[in-house]
Write a structure and sequence with these properties.
By secondary structure, the protein is α/β, with parallel strands linked by helices. It is built from 18 helices and 19 strands. Helix 8 crosses helix 10 and helix 8 crosses helix 14. This is NADP-reducing hydrogenase subunit HndC.
Length: 567
């Protein structure tokens, strides 16, 4: 592969496609706005300019390495140019940094500080454009866009949607939707992946923090929280811990400290989801109808299917997502136990996901006219609440979930990683049909970060063909294979975010393959040491099915735990 010289040091080329990767490996963390290892190369921000002997000044991200090349990263010229780029961006940027919701995590702010930009010599942005507040999940502030195009490429390349694009020319260039429509009026599925890559406050998560504080401080309300699988292995990152560190007990403790009345686990209703969905699959297999079944826990996928593949809606499982099953059982059953009306029990979801905000607001998910889930906070938002309450998170003791809705099996925990829902269904079905000799079922072919995974499993004397997909561009590929007859399956798990919920749009700042892999790794490790392995091992869930519904997959469960799709 050869060698090259970076700032006087000889460095091996290890198969990298561009200079930037080698320079960063050599310990020089060149700044960039528009470079993401998982997106195509755009080369527009010019922050990674370096001087080379052979080609002069080049953008490191878009220059392939050459044997013997001499590179200098830190010259008078490159330093001056980098500062100039930041200054020019700042000149055209709404600089209300102290109150911006991205403050402290904005890359522009950070780099201005890091590169020593002390003044902006150019004119100020003249008029302020209105914010787009129409989406339930995402806020767009065009005044803060620096035209890096990260959102454009994310939405197009990973999600296959292309909601964002450049419009107009020269100094009038903006990133906007088609015909400049409001976000609620385009096909955005609320996955928040664009927010994940936006370096500034141009795209942010719609905050519900104030609503939650109000509920906590309302003496007539009790706040009942649920924590999604993927939150517990990521939240620590907001407090300097490594990606993948399990902080479940600290989250419970923190929530109690800020005044949340009951802290439960989404795992409880994830076990319910598996049981309902697996039974639905068994019925469909028996009748040979509406196959393949598609999972329905990802609200971004459900919206995608409604918009682009309405003909497949009969195939989508009628199960509500674990988040919505939780809201429903709390408002319909648990509220009674507390002697409260549904409107006095405030259900708070803590999710890695931005689309869950949209899901919670869907009109079909209500009890007695009030929403089943009152507010959804992302991993980052709940960390923000802990910060507002001055909680020393890493020093918190570990607390256990409240009961009975605080118990979940390992099969429910793995929902948080791509393939987890399918593996959970396999565990349940094998447990049903395998008799006593069935021990632990670790179904490895559906694990991992690959975009499309295929697997076979023997269940009930049949061979089931399974597929697991993450990312909507991959999903579209799989659907075309299905529709063209090139492939056929019995069951398909779809998660819109790369790697599944561990890579959700509401997860902490660094949300790349490395972070996602670490988070998923810890989820499987926690599952490995968990005694309750299959959903049917969860005694509390089995008991709840009997007490509340008198069985599984029946009229009662359909009322509380299922939904219908209107094409
Ligand atoms: Fe998910 Fe799910 S796994 S959708 O990815 O089915 O958000 O974590 O909570 O509802 O359980 C998200 C995660 C989450 C639901 C479950
Ligand atoms: Fe939300 Fe998970 Fe779907 Fe991403 S994959 S949009 S985090 S439910």
């Amino acid at each position: 592969n050869g060698k090259l010289i970076i700032d006087g040091r000889e460095i091996d080329i290890q198969g990298e496609k561009n200079l930037l990767e080698i320079i960063r490996r050599a310990g020089i963390n060149l700044p960039t706005f528009c470079y993401h290892s998982e997106l195509s190369i755009y080369g527009a921000c010019r922050l990674c300019l370096v001087e080379t002997d052979k080609m002069g000044l080049v953008a490191a991200c878009s220059t392939p390495p050459q044997e013997g090349m001499v590179i200098r990263t830190n010259t008078l010229r490159t330093r001056r140019l980098r500062k100039m780029v930041i200054e020019l961006l700042l000149a055209n940027h709404e600089r209300e940094c102290t109150t911006c919701s991205r403050s402290g995590r904005c890359k522009l702010q950070l780099l201005a500080h890091q590169l020593g930009v002390k003044e902006v010599r150019f004119g100020k942005r003249d008029k302020k454009v209105p914010l787009d507040l129409t989406s339930p999940s995402i806020v767009r502030d065009p005044n803060k866009c620096i035209l890096c195009g990260d959102c454009v490429r994310m939405c197009k390349e990973v999600q296959g949607l292309g909601i964002w694009d450049f419009a107009h020319r020269g100094s009038k260039t903006v990133v906007t939707t088609a015909f400049d429509k409001e976000l609620s009026d385009v096909a955005c599925v609320n996955c928040g992946q664009c927010v994940s890559v936006c370096p500034t406050g141009a795209l942010t998560v719609k905050s519900e923090i104030d609503k939650v504080w109000n509920a906590i401080h309302d003496p007539d309300k009790i706040v009942v929280a649920q924590i999604a699988p993927a939150v517990r292995v990521a939240l620590g990152e907001e407090f300097g811990l490594n990606a993948g560190e399990d902080v479940t007990g600290k989250i419970v403790a923190g929530l109690k400290l800020i005044g949340v009345g009951r802290v439960f686990d989404t795992l409880f209703t994830a076990d319910m989801t598996t049981i309902e969905e697996a039974n639905e699959l068994l019925v469909r297999l028996e009748k040979n109808e509406n196959l393949p079944i598609f999972t329905s826990c990802c609200p971004a996928w459900v919206k995608y299917c409604e918009q682009f593949h309405a003909d497949l809606l009969p195939n989508v499982s009628s199960c509500r997502s674990p988040q919505q099953m939780f809201g429903s059982v709390v408002k319909k059953y648990y509220a009674k136990k507390l002697n409260k009306r549904p409107e006095d029990v405030f259900v708070l979801s803590i999710m890695p996901c931005v689309a869950k905000k949209f899901e919670a607001q869907r009109p079909e998910f209500t009890t007695g006219g009030v929403p089943d889930v009152d507010a959804v906070l992302t991993t980052v938002e709940i960390a923000q609440m802990f910060k507002e309450a001055s909680i020393d998170f890493t020093a918190l003791p570990n607390k256990a979930f409240d009961n009975p809705l605080g118990v979940g099996s390992g099969a429910a925990l793995i929902f948080g990683a791509s393939g987890g829902v399918m593996e959970s269904v396999v565990r349940y079905v094998s447990g049903l049909t395998g008799g006593d000799e069935v021990g632990r079922i670790d179904f490895l072919p559906v694990r991992g970060m690959e975009g499309i995974k295929k697997a076979y499993v023997k269940a009930g004397g049949k061979i089931l063909k399974l597929a697991v997909v993450n990312g909507l561009a991959n999903t579209e590929k799989l659907i075309s294979m299905l529709k063209s007859g090139e492939a056929s399956f019995d069951a398909i798990e779809v998660m819109s975010c790369p790697g599944g919920c561990v890579g959700g749009g509401g997860q902490p700042e660094v949300n790349d393959t490395v972070a996602r892999t670490r988070r998923a790794g810890e989820i499987y490790e926690m599952d490995r040491v968990q005694q309750l392995h299959k959903p049917q091992d969860n005694y509390f869930v089995v008991k709840a099915f009997e007490e509340w519904f008198g069985g599984v997959n029946n009229h009662e469960t359909h009322h509380a735990l299922h939904t219908t799709y209107v094409p």
